[in-house]
Amino acid sequence: MSTTDRRTFLQTAGLAGMFSAMSPAALAQSTSATATHEVAKSTPLPDKPQHSIRFGVIGLDHYHIMSMTAAVQRGGGQLVAFYATDPKQIADFRARFGDVKLARSEDEIIGNKSLQLVAGAPIPDQRTPLGIRVMRAGKDFLSDKPAIVTLEQLAEVRRTIRETGRKFAIMYSERLEVPAAVHAGELIQQGAIGRVVQTVNLAPHQINQPNSAGRPAWFYDKARYGGILTDIGSHQADQFLFYTGSTKAQVVAAQTGNFAHPQYPKFEDFGDMMLTGNGGTGYVRVDWFTPDGLGVWGDGRLFILGTQGYIELRKYVNVASGLPGGNHLYIVDGKQARYIDCRNVPLPFGPQFVADIVNRTQTAQDQEQALLAAELVLTAQKNATRPLIV
Q1: Would you say 193 and 331 are in contact if contact means Cβ atoms under 8 Å apart?
Q2: What is the Cα–Cα distance from 292 to 265, expressed in whole angstroms?
Q3: Edge-to-edge strand list for the sheet holding 36-39
Q4: What is the C-alpha to C-alpha distance for residues 209 and 212, in angstroms, rounded to an integer?
Q5: DSSP for 276-322?
Q6: By CB distance 3.0 to 4.6 Å, which of 64, 161, 246, 306 could disulfide with 144?
Q7: Model confidence pLDDT, tens digit, residues 147-197
């Protein structure tokens, strides 16, 4: 077909007519690729924890504390006591972990010399002050994210770490507690896609999940939760640093906005940022716009571009694929396209973290990298512009 005839054909028949004229075999060849299906093969964890510590919990304001507590227990942690004041939070925690002792105050836990660790998920702006008190009492601290909501708090955390030698760990659960994210790290370490060039993280969230009682007032106050980039974006900054192997990084650009919640003027429902580091580049988008029809709280997706291939994670759902649940990993390299079911990949953070507390190592989480992730989102949040369309 000549160029003129082809142009005339497209104009008169349209793309739909052109596709209907093609054979099914030709369409299949031009629009689809076959990926092999496999189950992830990861090194299993020991049947029993190799180490043991005693720990307490303070603050149940975010229910991430449930998975944080479970991770420490998997690693050999013995939960001794917890402190909270909300009756529902107390009842839910005991329903999960049994008839654990309820302390009379935070000080009862912080002052307990038999404990090596305190884990906490109070309201975000209270996490750094709690961690400072814990470290100065000679204990390590594991915080929910965001663990730090201002650059001034970050400076205080770094100073206290230097002065006490204690750990200020942050549970970036979207990498540490997601099997597909764990396996992606293993593949990258094996050189499966060459050198990582860029990460792209899309992290939509749902404000009120079905059957929930809604969010507390602090959730809508940026001074309390730190802003959307500080809060949700901390997960993505951690992943950018980890997968690119960056030890130095900076924010190129950032923006935040409130598109759909004018009744909460201190709230942000959208944010994005561009990052660059000495190991690669990154783009992050976070939002609170997951619709009810999805069926889960968010369609988290991660794209990792390498010099010899790429990886995509569908962490929590794989829309319209026919594949159930989450933890779906796709990898394409110079030889083939593969789909890997990662649901049964073991989660090493708990055992590694308990071992780090005992041995004073940094296998589960590098302290400087964890705080650099916090510094990136705090800087992005501080300097973010507002979209013109808000």
Answers
A1: yes
A2: 23
A3: 36-39, 337-341, 328-333, 309-314, 301-306, 196-204, 280-287, 270-277, 249-257
A4: 6
A5: EETTEEEEEEEES---GGGSSS---EEEEEETTEEEEEE-S--TTSS
A6: 64
A7: 999 999 999 999 999 999 999 999 999 999 999 999 999 999 999 999 999
